[in-house]
Amino acid sequence: MLLTLDHLTVRLPGTARPVLDDVTLRVAAGEVVGLVGESGSGKSTTAKAALGLLPGTATASGTVRVDDADVLALTGEELRRHRARTVAMIHQDPRAALNPVRRIGDFLRERGADRDRAAQLLGAVGLSDPERRLRQRPHELSGGMLQRVVIAGALAARPRLLLADEATSALDVTTQAEILALLRTLRAEQGAGLLFITHDLHLAAAYCDRVYVMYAGRIVEERTAQAFFAAPAHPYTRGLLDCSPTLGDTSRPLLPIPGRPPSLGDAFPGCPFASRCPDAEPACETWRPEAAELPDGGVAACRRAPAAVPTATERNLS
């Protein structure tokens, strides 16, 4: 297994609950794994754990392994080598990843690409006139163009594991399709694994092999992409799909999840989704979620699982 998180719990001082709570997640070599959930659910922190980029004040328990490396135990030169060669992350905010006074070419060369490969990478991610872009600074490019530069930088070192945090959210749909195809090519050519963080549930279902759903720092469901979209088992997953628009289907009403996503100041004696869940029962207020295996081999952390999972047709009729 390329990336293994086992019962990872991360706490920050002054918070009522962990940022990550007993997270278990796997990414195999050559696999695309989706991670979805509302903002603040812990998706980016999960990805940063694979890089050893947890906050300095954080306390962590559990295991984070990439290949044979215990990431939480890496320090100094070993940690720098891990971040430079084994794992690469495409950040949500490209401006935060680029030095505003350094040229684009310098950014790519720092990541191991010579001038010819740097220009090739910029062309591959859809930037016109790559040679000119190498001489430009970040303020001369739009946000979407900078996102492509950051993607090129992540690909420069030919990483074994790629962490894509909303990597295509700033791109138009045509360029998005080109970038996703490029990431698939990387996976095929190098056997790289990809952890794909996104708010686009339909994209996750179409692009990923498996999908993890995260809520309040916990994994609430893990399914194959086909099962995730066709027959979601956790009420939160069903809620996310019910409020996601679909192309061409204007007759289906969008049903928002009531309430608000929890903050780190909110503590839960039982299921953290109970106050927003349409299927909650009094016992859910005190039942601590435990992953239950579903008939198809997936898991869902719901007290009522593994109850019969409705089909997509049944959900649409209800």
From TrEMBL:
Residues 3-241 form the ABC transporter domain. It is found in: Cell membrane. It comes from the Bacteria. InterPro entries: AAA+_ATPase (IPR003593), ABC_Ni/Peptide_Import (IPR050388), ABC_transporter-like_ATP-bd (IPR003439), ABC_transporter-like_CS (IPR017871), Oligopep_ABC_C (IPR013563), P-loop_NTPase (IPR027417). GO terms for molecular function: ATP binding. It is a peripheral membrane protein. Keywords: ATP-binding, Cell membrane, Membrane, Nucleotide-binding, Transport. Gene3D superfamilies: P-loop containing nucleotide triphosphate hydrolases. The keyword Transport applies. SMART domains: AAA. Its main location: membrane. NCBIfam families: oligo_HPY. Belongs to the ABC transporter superfamily. PANTHER family: DIPEPTIDE TRANSPORT ATP-BINDING PROTEIN DPPD (PTHR43297:SF2), OLIGOPEPTIDE TRANSPORT ATP-BINDING PROTEIN APPD (PTHR43297). This is ABC transporter ATP-binding protein. It comes from Streptomyces viridiviolaceus.
